[in-house]
């Protein structure tokens, strides 16, 4: 069965979508069958992998409200082994529509069961909130990656997210683990970046990934071309960092 990993932090601008796109692409380059679920109504992962959200007819929204089969929603990408279940602005309304549905926190888990055996890794790009869709993603996942930017207020809100994860572990998904805290937007020239790295590593120790994602122009540019950074420029620091992260995670799951 494929490993399902949510990428979550209710704080915006920490690199969730960048991580979802580029980690998934790197895993695919390593020839792991990889599926990305865009669970953010902004649909940035969808557009970043070359699909126009306005032209999407079937998305994760239709799957969760029972209007479509997930296998009919899967799209291909520029990278072999990498597939996408897109998002749509309609996902904003899913939380309201699902209010009266029984076991509403488990809808994504039910949806992903249909394809879990088809992939080595399934990554879920979560919205910057702790709403019902993010709860669904965490309930469906084996583990969660928490991106934290190397900037001021980096740890703001992290306690609330960790508390939410604890609640989900107790009530909805006892097998949910923290895959790791991922330091992003690191600038070696800035004293503040180095201070944040030191603070996070001191507080969370083994929970922090060895790989640190640098601030890199190729990571910022690639979504505008509808491709991940490893296709845009495979030798860039950002591409190499995500490839290193993919190897670090894959090594944990090798038998």
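^ Assign residues to that structure.
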């Amino acid at each position: 069965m494929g490993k399902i990993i949510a990428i979550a932090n209710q704080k915006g601008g920490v690199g969730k979508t960048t991580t979802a796109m580029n980690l998934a692409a790197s895993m695919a380059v390593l020839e792991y069958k990889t599926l990305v679920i865009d669970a953010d109504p902004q649909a940035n992962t969808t557009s970043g992998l070359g699909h126009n959200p306005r032209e999407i007819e079937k998305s994760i929204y239709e799957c969760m409200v029972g209007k479509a089969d997930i296998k009919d929603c899967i799209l291909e990408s520029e990278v072999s082994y990498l597939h996408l279940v897109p998002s749509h602005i309609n996902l904003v309304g899913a939380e309201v529509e699902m209010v009266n549905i029984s076991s509403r926190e488990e809808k994504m888990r039910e949806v992903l069961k249909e394809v879990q055996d088809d992939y080595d890794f399934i990554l879920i790009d979560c919205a910057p909130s702790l709403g019902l869709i993010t709860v669904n993603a965490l309930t469906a996942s084996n583990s969660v990656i928490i991106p934290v930017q190397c900037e001021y207020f980096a740890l703001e809100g992290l306690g609330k997210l960790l508390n939410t994860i604890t609640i989900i572990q107790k009530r909805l998904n006892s097998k949910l683990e923290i895959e790791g805290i991922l330091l992003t937007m690191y600038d070696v020239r800035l004293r503040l970046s180095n201070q944040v790295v030191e603070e996070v590593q001191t507080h969370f120790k083994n929970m922090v990934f060895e790989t640190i994602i640098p601030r890199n122009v190729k990571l910022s540019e690639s979504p505008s071309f509808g491709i991940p950074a490893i296709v845009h420029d495979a030798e860039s620091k950002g591409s190499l960092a995500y490839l290193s992260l993919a190897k670090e995670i894959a090594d944990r799951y090798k038998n």
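Residues 181 and 208 are 5 Å apart (CA to CA).
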